[in-house]
Specification:
The protein contains nine helices and two strands. The protein is flat, with a radius of gyration of 49 Å. It is an all-alpha fold. Among the domains are: 33 residues; 106 residues, Tetratricopeptide repeat domain (Serine Threonine Protein Phosphatase 5, Tetratricopeptide repeat, Alpha Horseshoe), CATH 1.25.40.10. InterPro entries: CpoB (IPR034706), CpoB_C (IPR014162), TPR-like_helical_dom_sf (IPR011990), TPR_rpt (IPR019734).
């Protein structure tokens, strides 16, 4: 009896197993077909891109060849017309070896009639003798007597004028340690040395956490990240400005850059939130004007 039940169970399970196996094989075949279609599509797109690049290269080569042919034709026309070619250096004259004369074109610019020797005869030539002017007697030269200068008439030397001694220049007032350190970091930022500027601003905030320029140093640290498109770190740096110095002038600029950074990372909701906070907390600031434009663009 038990054997009969086992046989019936096996007979019932065999079709089920076959269906499952066939379904898995169908799914596997479908996935393989889809992968091959994607691979073929990608290959086709790559082929089309290569064709486009080759066509662009052919067009550029054809354009260069036509331009060079036009230049050669222009130079050839200039040579035929006796003009200086377009690439001839400035200041140099351009002429052909043949020059027009009365008797036609003579090679080298020489004329046979001009080069012929002149024949002279023995006839008198009164015009060849030029009369000399009459001699004028020179006046006798008189030697002037030496002038006697007495001691009273001798010029007295001018008294020496004492030159004023230059006053030593006053030394320029030296900047304080905090201001000098801040200006160094700001100069590094303007020079595009963002990592060095960040290190200098960190040193400033560590040494002078309560200085008047501490908020500025934190803000420009955020700007170094923003310039490097590291918007996540820029958000953290700008939030440190608003957290530690909520009433400072740089807090308004920091709120603006927080909103813009959130927009750059694809989070428009947070961008609108911080831009609205900027407009509400600092309505008269210049940053608020830019914030209103950003809100209008984002639809907030």
């Amino acid at each position: 009896m038990k054997c009969l039940k086992l046989l019936l169970l096996a007979a019932f399970c065999l079709p089920l197993v076959g269906c499952i196996t066939s379904q898995k094989s169908a799914e596997t075949e479908s996935a393989s077909t889809e992968w091959r279609i994607k691979s073929l599509e990608e290959s086709f797109l790559n082929f089309r891109e290569q064709q486009r690049k080759m066509a662009d290269e052919d067009a550029r080569s054809r354009e260069k060849l036509e331009k060079r042919m036009a230049e050669v034709e222009a130079e050839l026309a200039a040579l035929r017309g006796g003009q200086a070619p377009s690439d001839a250096p400035r200041g140099e004259t351009w002429s052909s070896d043949l020059q027009p004369e009365e008797d036609g074109w003579v090679e080298g610019g020489k004329n046979a009639e001009k080069d012929a020797p002149k024949v002279e005869n023995d006839a008198e030539k009164p015009w060849a003798k030029v009369p000399e002017p009459p001699a004028v007697p020179e006046p006798p030269q008189t030697i002037p007597e030496p002038e006697v200068i007495t001691r009273a008439q001798a010029p007295k030397p001018a008294p020496a004028v004492a030159k004023p001694t230059p006053k030593p220049a006053k030394p320029a007032p030296r900047a304080s340690g905090a201001k000098a350190l801040y200006e160094r970091g700001y100069g590094q930022y303007n020079a595009g040395q963002f990592q060095a500027a960040r290190a200098t601003f960190d040193e400033f905030t560590a040494k002078y956490p309560h200085d008047d320029l501490a908020a500025n140093a934190l803000y420009w640290k955020g700007e170094t990240y923003y310039s490097e498109r590291n918007y996540a770190q820029a958000i953290l740096a700008f939030k440190e400005v608003t957290g530690r110095f909520p009433k400072h002038d740089k807090a308004a600029a920091a709120l603006l850059k927080i909103g813009m950074s959130y927009d750059r990372v694809g989070d428009p909701d947070n961008a609108i939130f911080y831009l609205r906070a900027l407009v509400e907390d600092f309505p008269e600031s210049s940053a608020a004007g830019l914030g209103r434009k950003e809100l209008a663009r984002l639809g907030g």
